[in-house]
Amino acid sequence: MTDRAFDRPAYALAADLDRTLGDPNADSGPFSYAAMVAHEENGELPPGAVDLIRSWGFAQYLVPEEFGGRLRNLEQLFLLTRSLSRRNLTVAVMFGSAILGANPVWLWGDEEQRAKVARGILGGDLACFAVSEPDHGSDLGTNETVAVRHADGYLLTGEKWPVGNATRGRFVTVYVAVEDAGSSLLLLDKEELDEGSWDNHPFVRTVGLRGHDLSGITFHDTRVPAQSLLGRPGAGLVEILQVLQITRTAIGGLSLGTMDSVLRIALRHARERILYGQEIYRLPVIRRHLVDSYLDLLIAECTALPVARALSVAPSRLSLWSSVVKYLVPTLGEQVVQECARVLGARSYLREGVASGVFQKLQRDHAIASIFEGTTHVNLHSIASQLPAVARVADRPSRGGEDVLRQLFDWSEEAPQWHPSGRELRLTSAAEDEITRGWNPAVEEALRIAEHELPQSEGTALAKVVGELSARRTAFYAHLATASLDAATTEGQDRAAEHCVYHAAASCLYTWLHTFGSERAETGGSGWLVLVLQRLLQRLRPEAVLDETFLPWLEERIMSSLDAAEHFSLRTVKEAAGQSGA
């Protein structure tokens, strides 16, 4: 039987939120597809949607436990975000923007700042992170918003745009050039600012996320108290780069929720749509689109969830790992959306019909995932700049690495409690990358299991795909260890993208080793691993094929999750494998 590794408080909490949100295919309710599509036409959120989320208590999970909330760790928030995004990405982004604005306070704020923001958020207020400027975008080295000393504080002048929650948010964490200190973060409370000394911009008209407050804020010699400073004077740029590591990871939850929704819509359509005398799921090309999408979702889950756990386990690694998640998971999400659009055909373009026409909204909304908190190119640049150091030690297991991997990938226990501290985050991983460096020992263990514990077909297939990945990986890091790599070049971007494949493959392998203990030898307990590794190999060698032997069992799991309205997840794969050995 399964060891019930997923029956933990964080999963139970996400399941409760899922039940509260209800069936999106229902005819009514603020989180029904029909309501979302109807109100988005006017750029509005469905009436009652935000109230329902707040009454459930979602705001409690934006405030860490030690500051009076219920947020225990990032894994918990990740799972909640996944459930919410499965219904309405716009609402999820609203709360995501709030946590982005509040995280600098949790990390660097003093006792009074933390207490004030905690009380406000728990009471229903929102926060925002005012960093971008109209003429500079992500060029954080240029900052025209200035704070000059005045009396017992500062006079603040400048414009921040675009900013999520800039109008609805009460608290503003703003990036400014402070006189005699340099670029810093200030915490502002709009309720304490002089009337008329600041104003908000109108909402920006966007392709997706219609109804979200994406606006701006302008300051006109706004008086700001000296105690508004967050953290160390002049450390603003460093603090931004560090705080983004957290939200970049959490964005993986937005993508996973979207993948679940679009795959569910496409699968249901493929089962109900009859062409040429049969349901279109029986057409090989349709089946391939859907199976590939499901495998991409499993890869994304295996990659993102351990990095969410890393905030409590190994936060200094997030400079590298969060960029891997931010690049790879939204990229996989975009591919899943495209595959499902091909299944739906013309219906993917309609604002009515299948699932009330919500697919086109999901498609437009998810496009933001690769853009905010650092574009795809920005994250690949960050990875490429750290790759030479990682490559030089890629085949040297790190001291204590096995314990770190166990805490990241053994999901039978929840991640430890997060105690926010900016001192634990770093600008580079300094080659402390257990996920890369643990590959060879993990492969040795996998080959031993393949030979002695698995059915012959699964053992042979696993050994083959692991062997090819290992050969490619060894050559890849050996080359990088001796060559120069310019992170700004297209080669740097390509190398970074390939590293993400090896990171994901390792994450899938560790998940199997640490979470699929008793299930590995049961039906399907290792077949899923073979398939996801083969799917990752296709990113390096497109002509690689999936082993059809393992697909029927996996497809049964997909359909059973669809009928039971469960998340598409390794959870259902693990439980089914455990039950087959009961």
Automatic annotation (TrEMBL):
The source's superkingdom equals Bacteria
Q: Which cofactor does it need?
A: FAD
Any matching Pfam family: Acyl-CoA_dh_M
CDD domains found in the cross-reference section: ACAD (cd00567)
Task: Please state which protein family the record places this protein in.
Answer: Belongs to the acyl-CoA dehydrogenase family.
Q: Which residues form the Acyl-CoA dehydrogenase/oxidase C-terminal domain?
A: 235-386
Give the organism the record lists.
Streptomyces lunalinharesii
What Gene3D superfamilies has UniProt attached to this entry? Answer: Acyl-CoA dehydrogenase/oxidase, N-terminal domain (1.10.540.10), Butyryl-CoA Dehydrogenase, subunit A, domain 2 (2.40.110.10), Butyryl-CoA Dehydrogenase, subunit A, domain 3 (1.20.140.10)
> What protein name is recorded for this chain?
Acyl-CoA dehydrogenase
Q: Which UniProt keywords apply?
A: FAD, Flavoprotein, Oxidoreductase
Q: Which residues form the Acyl-CoA oxidase/dehydrogenase middle domain?
A: 128-221
Which parts of the sequence belong to the Acyl-CoA dehydrogenase/oxidase N-terminal domain? 38-124
